[in-house]
Amino acid sequence: MRHSFAFRLAATLLTLTPPTALWAQQPARPTAPRPAPVVGTPAAKKPAAKTPAASTTPAKTPAASTAPAGKTPGQAKPAATGKTTAAPTSGTATKPAPAAPGKTTSAPTPPPATKAAVVPARPAGPPLPANLGSSDPTVRYQNGKTLITQTRYDLAMQELEPLTPPSARFDRAPEAAYLYAVAATRAKKWAEAEQMLNLLRTEYPGWPNLAEAFFLQAQVSFELSEADNALKMLAQIPAGRLEAEREAMKAVYLPRVKDKLQFQTLLQHYPQDAAVGRAYADKLANGGWYTDADKPTLDQLITQFSLDRTRYTPRPRAQKKSSYNVAVLLPFEFDDPSWEKQRKNQFVTDLYAGMRLAQDSLQREGRPIQLYSYDTGADTLQLKQVLALPELASMDLIIGPIYKSGSKILARYAQQRQIICINPLSQDADLVLDNGWHYLFEPSTVTQAKQAAQFAISRFASRTAVVLYEDTKDEAAFGQAYKTAYEALGGKVLQLRRVNSDVEESISAGFAGLDLKTVGHLVVASDHRKAGPYTLGVLQAQGARLPLLTYASWLENSRVSLGQLDARDVFFVHPKYLDKTAYGVRRFRQLYLQRQNLPPSVFAFTGFELLYYFGSQLHQNGPGFQQNLASSGPVSGAVFQGIGYPAGAHDNQYVPFTKLERLELEVQNPVGLR
């Protein structure tokens, strides 16, 4: 075939890659290799004595560190300076050290909006192809292929797009369209990829390699949560083509379908598809979906697809009990009593102190929870030692750990033992993919972006936006998810730009050429301390009064005054918003001060809300409460604004938005603190 080179390149990028390499992988968090003994015991492999709710009040904890209002050190971005340490829970309260004097720097003066300074934020990679934007279509085509191999997907899309329509009269237009779609999927620009694949199938139906287009369209549809359409695309691939790759794709994506009704629809539409049948049987037997009404369906699937009955027989559902056992796996690190390490790990102590108060509240309501605390240290070795303890298998719920590498290990353990585990601080949705027993207590970064897009559509009259996001994985995910969600709701993102606020030229280029007076609203997804003052400076220089949507961490930025924020229409994505006038917040603060003689940090509030909410789920529905959680709507939290895991979501779907002290979402009166 005369265009075999283009086909081989695409095959190298997609079909010849091992299945696990087709999907973006997360780097592990750095951890420190130092084990510590289990809380409250001298031996490293013994749990601390259980702490019934009616037990003696715990000793005072050291002074709570000031917690930022938005993202916090223990969430998606813990400190990357080695091992974190914990403050002891016994003895007298430690006096906090005075804060180091900080330098106050005035906000940088932004360049004029029309300045077109373009300096790359990243270190230079391989040299760019010559003649970018050439009028010669063959040169542009070769440039596009080269840019894909260099992982410069945005530039590749720019080079290839003009070659794709029939009006371009380029003899390799189908290959250019396919390679454009490859670049778009690699850049996670699913909407752009889908649009180009539709053009390819419509305008070039005779292209010999159309099977590859169907295969790529299936991946895009899976990523857009359109599993039914993905299976339709795979079914259109001729027999004998890409069979192994098709099965690998199904094996990766079908377990990610979170809604039971949606999966039942897939089973009805594809009753002979073994991959669909196996995946649904696995959801029933091992994913927490099984009910007594599912027995005939599961038996039929086991017989039809010759499944191993021992593997696909669900374990007996745990019966509801009068009291439940909860394991808390946190890096307390009490083996190092130095003040510096205690202070660095203060958030862990605060988190646990909040759980103890929740335990007391549940006990008063007649819903006792027994807490068993384990010190997992800051490395995976000690976590594995804890998971080897026989009593862990008898727990009804596991909370922890903090770090990503440990979370992956615990997630596998929880799935094998069929014990629900809750990550208390992470916002990484990748941690809970394909696992019906693993939940995030926080809303993921992608969920925050989707909720922000819905808020913008309902709140702002204009339907146009500019989105800037920091050059990090989390913020890139936020920016892409916001664009996808906002445009799906009828809005239009005029510009989606990545910036590196550490580089003056990069943040300048991010705003270059933007006339913000003509834009509906601006989104800045950045925690960086320079991003706030620079953005406000640009708005002032342009005289732009558009609404600004950003992170709540800006409220803790000493370089941005509350007056600057209040003078503009600024809204904050604020998952940890605490309404200080609410009864629950005031009551918790009162109880915490009585117990600890110190004001609670946001981590203390988090520990309370987490255990109170999931402890209540245990008493209402028993240890396997996934289906009940999925079918219930969001509820008012005891101290935070709300909690909800609808339709099988495994991260909290409720995200408050605030404008300084004015709450933009109404909630019911909180309950639970008595």
TrEMBL record:
- What keyword terms does UniProt attach to this protein? Signal
Q: Pfam families in the record, alphabetically? A: ARM_TT21, Peripla_BP_6
Query: What are the Leucine-binding protein domain coordinates in residue numbering?
Result: 353-501
Task: Write down the superkingdom of origin.
Answer: Bacteria
Q: Where is the composition biased (Low complexity)?
A: 37-107
* Keyword Signal (UniProt): yes
Please give the residue ranges the record annotates as the region Disordered: 24-140
Keyword Signal in the entry? The reply is yes
Q: Which InterPro entries does the UniProt record give?
A: BCAA_transport, Leu-bd, Peripla_BP_I, TPR-like_helical_dom_sf
- Write the signal peptide boundaries: 1-24
Q: Which family does it belong to?
A: Belongs to the leucine-binding protein family.
Protein name per Swiss-Prot or TrEMBL: Leucine-binding protein domain-containing protein
Which source organism? Hymenobacter aquaticus
